[in-house]
Design a protein that fits this description.
Among the domains are: about 150 residues; about 90 residues, Sandwich (Immunoglobulin-like), CATH 2.60.40.1180; about 90 residues, no CATH class. Helix 11 packs parallel to helix 13 and helix 13 runs antiparallel to helix 14. Strand 9 and strand 10 form a beta hairpin. Strands 5, 17, 18, 19, 20, 21, 22, 23 and 24 form a 9-stranded antiparallel beta sheet that branches. Strands 2-8-9-10-16-12-13 form a 7-stranded antiparallel beta sheet, with no helix packed on it. Strands 1-6-7-11-15-14 form a 6-stranded mixed beta sheet, with helices on one face. It contains 15 helices and 24 strands. The longest helix is centred in the N-terminal third of the chain and has 22 residues. Helix content is about 35%, strand content about 15%. It binds zinc ion. The site of zinc ion has 7 residues, from helix 13 and helix 15.
């Protein structure tokens, strides 16, 4: 089986929920980020990221400023801009992208090396401290941007820059040993391999994966002392091998540990590499880790990495709602992982996870105006302690304008802007629809248009057009769907259910209607999650709900949601929070979790005491 995702250029998202958010990306967020990178937003945290490239190119004098991985902000913005260009013509943006890419080209060294921190500040220390210095991480993001600009926007220049960069890295690390301190380049090299067909990049990705954990003391042995220098603003203990998952070979890892983004970026790479090579042990490790995370280490929102210390996974079932870290990037990474798992196996569990992440943990990272972002995504906020009390320093009641460590905003922007690439896959004669998002797609032998009332109602219609041959359509039925009915051309459809997908034979002109109940449901955590024992949350369809103080002036701390309290689904309110379906239970008013913190400082809770 060789399932491949349909590239976003073959898909246009048409549904109201997501197309409006994609427009927010193209019209507001991506231009706003560019102004941040150019230090043009008054009052926002200084970025200096473009200036760093100018200095590396010898076109500006001054000092490098920012995190050691500041370059990755430019790379992620370029990747998001690439998808923006694919979503609609924007000659001005296209010209500015070309300018930035040309600048990056001038900042690249003659041997292919590309990193502004080391070029400007410590040219003698290139690749000496892989643990902390993020050179391979930044290279990975740049490679992803290069691939995206080529695939989505037809621009070749950054891809060529990145090929020189990747060759420089492979020239070195195919011979000498090296392990990326922050995994990222592995998944990027896989993408570069996919687009170029050049086996060397696959080999390099595999070598980085293979070396990791072979010698648990590798970083301790290979990290030079650097007294007084704090790369990236913090010191990583080379002996903390759990932090970056370097204590156990990747194929033997059984549970998620350490820094969540590092862990899941690596899993996304492992899944893609397992697909490319047929490496069964790698694939089994991915499946094991997927189960470990989704069954024992993930919040009901899809957030992962519960602990603020090291932005990390901790032990199983340690999921406090109020001290939750749940980095936005980690939720985005889970979407990458789910997408790559779907290429290994059309299993609805992966599509369910993808759905959970995009509608909840990831989406909550963004303000409705597209300009403010959460890094941390708690499931409970008390303004009296948030940001202040020990243990709650990381928890904020409102999204800040920008972060000195700006990893999350562009990560979310690239996910939303490229969401079309997550909807469909193909495999021989079968076309898979993973998400019930309205779109038009050139999939398999046909053009398929989907109209969907999601996420507010469980209704969608697929119309097959311009198909010369019959084919098989596999539609993912979300696991929460109740009483699902499929009709083909007005009649009960003959289907085969397998792993959460409804398979049916279709041909030109067919109309497939799917409908199911989206009754409000109570969500409980495993009894071993001590913090939420005896508590319940509300969900409907793909959306998890929360309660905010502004809607519930009596306060939330003493509020209860008794077991027998009926949950009412209220009418769609187009004026509230960009248009939502609120719910009401026991006198409490609930809104979708993703929409919280859009109305000022506020108490918020996902879980309520049931008795
Ligand atoms: Zn982040």
């Amino acid at each position: 089986m060789s399932i491949r995702a349909l590239p976003m250029r073959k898909v246009r998202i048409t549904d109201a929920f997501w197309s409006s958010r994609q427009r927010l990306m193209t019209d507001v967020t991506i231009p706003y980020m560019e102004r941040i990178l150019r230090d043009e937003v008054p009052g926002a945290e200084k970025s200096h990221a473009i200036s760093n490239f100018r200095m590396a190119a010898g076109e500006e004098s001054g000092e490098f400023y920012g995190m050691v991985f500041q370059d990755s902000d430019v790379a992620k913005w370029l990747e998001a801009a690439a998808y923006s260009l694919a979503l609609g013509d924007d000659p001005a943006l296209s010209a500015r992208v070309d300018d930035v890419v040309a600048l990056i080209g001038r900042a690249q060294q003659a041997d292919g090396y590309l990193n502004t921190y080391f070029t400007v500040k410590e040219p003698e220390n290139r690749f000496k401290n892989l643990l902390e210095c993020h050179e391979l991480y930044c290279a990975g993001h740049m490679i992803e941007a290069g691939v995206a600009l080529y695939e989505a926007a037809g621009k070749r220049e950054l891809l060529d820059i990145c090929i020189r960069l990747a060759d420089h890295i492979a020239d070195r690390f195919m011979l000498e040993e090296g392990i990326p301190g922050h995994q990222e380049i592995e998944l990027a090299l896989m993408r570069l391999y996919r687009v170029t067909g050049c086996r060397r990049y696959l080999d390099m990705a595999m070598r980085f994966l293979d070396l990791r954990g072979q010698d648990p003391n590798w970083f301790a042995k290979h990290t030079p002392p650097h007294p007084g220098v704090h790369y990236g603003g913090y010191d990583i203990d080379p002996k903390d091998t759990v932090y970056n998952q370097s204590d156990v070979p990747v194929r033997e890892q059984t549970t998620a540990r350490g820094h969540a983004v590092r862990q899941v970026y690596m899993l996304a790479a492992m899944a893609d590499a397992a697909h490319a090579t047929g490496d069964e042990r790698l694939r089994h490790a991915c499946e094991r880790m997927f189960d470990a995370i989704t069954q024992r280490q993930m919040y009901v929102t899809g957030a992962i990495g519960s602990n603020a210390h090291h932005e990390s996974f901790t032990s199983d079932y340690d999921l406090p709602p109020d001290r939750c870290y749940g980095e936005t990037c980690a939720a985005v990474a889970m979407a990458f992982f789910a997408k790559n798992m779907l290429a290994l196996d059309a299993d609805g569990r992966y599509a369910d996870l993808l759905e959970l992440e995009i509608y909840n943990a990831a989406l909550a990272g963004m303000q409705m105006d597209g300009k403010r972002f959460f890094y941390v995504n708690p499931l409970e906020v008390d303004p009296a302690v948030a940001g202040k009390a020990p243990g709650y320093e990381h928890v904020l009641t409102e999204r800040p304008q920008w972060h000195s460590c700006a990893c999350c905003p562009p990560n979310l922007a690239r996910l939303i802007a490229s969401l079309g690439g997550y909807l469909w896959s193909e495999d021989g004669n079968t076309v898979y629809s993973h998400l019930l998002i309205g779109s038009k797609a050139a999939a398999g032998p046909a053009e398929i248009s989907v109209k969907s009332a999601y996420p507010w109602e469980g209704r969608a219609e697929y119309v097959i057009q311009r198909s010369s041959v019959p084919f098989e359509l596999a539609i993912h039925i979300p696991s929460h769907a109740e009483n699902a009915v499929l009709q083909k051309n007005g009649k009960h459809a003959q289907i085969r259910m397998e792993k959460g997908y409804a398979y049916l034979h279709v041909q030109d002109g067919d109309k497939i209607k799917i409908s199911f109940d989206m009754l409000p449901r109570r969500v409980y955590t495993d009894a071993r999650v001590a913090d939420t024992a005896g508590k319940t949350a509300l969900a409907r369809g793909p959306l998890l709900y929360c309660f905010e103080g502004i809607d519930n002036p009596g306060g939330l701390k003493a509020s209860k949601l008794p077991e027998d309290a009926e949950v009412h689904v209220l009418d769609y309110d187009e004026k509230l929070l960009g248009g939502i379906v609120p719910m009401e239970a026991a006198g409490l008013f609930a809104i979708p979790y993703y929409a919280w913190s859009n109305r000022g400082k506020n108490e918020m809770r996902v879980f309520m005491n049931e008795s």
